[in-house]
Amino acid sequence: MQQFEGSCQCGQVRYRVSGRVATLFACHCRDCQRQSASAFGMALWLRDAELTLLQGVTASWPRHTPSGRITDCQFCPQCGSRLFHQNRDTPQFLSIKPGSLDDTGWLRPAAHIWTQSAQPWLALPAEVPSWPQNPDDFAALIAAWQAAPGDCRG
């Protein structure tokens, strides 16, 4: 089990989460671009996660994804920073928005998804697996993480 701590942008919400890292990937879908106000969003999936709010409370709303799934999104009600996502059809995974972690120096995506929506100026690394949309099976994202060099996995 690994343990991580982080917070929202304004500091009203602090959290600690422990679990086993399943994968870390970048998503280039338009929803993630809008949510992150950037070229892509990132997702750090933890298996069997235990989340403890150390300070504050989160608000949540259900988001309908481009693939038809429903994702419950938790965010700070004060500053709006997204912190966690959980797909209703894969409850064994908690997705952390990894930019909210206190230590982000080790973050390197093991895969890229929804590259058909990627910004044309962004050069994706050729050695990192990518998919134009979601992979057929999310096990492919987990396998990409397991195949990544050890220095990419924190």
UniProtKB/TrEMBL annotation:
Q: Which residues form the signal peptide?
A: none
**Could you say which protein family the record assigns here?**
Belongs to the Gfa family.
Q: Cite the PANTHER family for this sequence.
A: CENP-V_GFA DOMAIN-CONTAINING PROTEIN (PTHR33337:SF3), GFA DOMAIN-CONTAINING PROTEIN (PTHR33337)
Listed name of the protein = GFA family protein
Q: Which UniProt keywords apply?
A: Lyase, Metal-binding, Zinc
Q: Does the keyword Lyase apply?
A: yes
Domain annotation CENP-V/GFA: ranges: 4-122
Q: Which organism is it from?
A: Vogesella oryzagri
Alphabetical list of Gene3D superfamilies matching this protein = glutathione-dependent formaldehyde- activating enzyme (gfa)
Does the keyword Metal-binding belong to this entry? Answer: yes
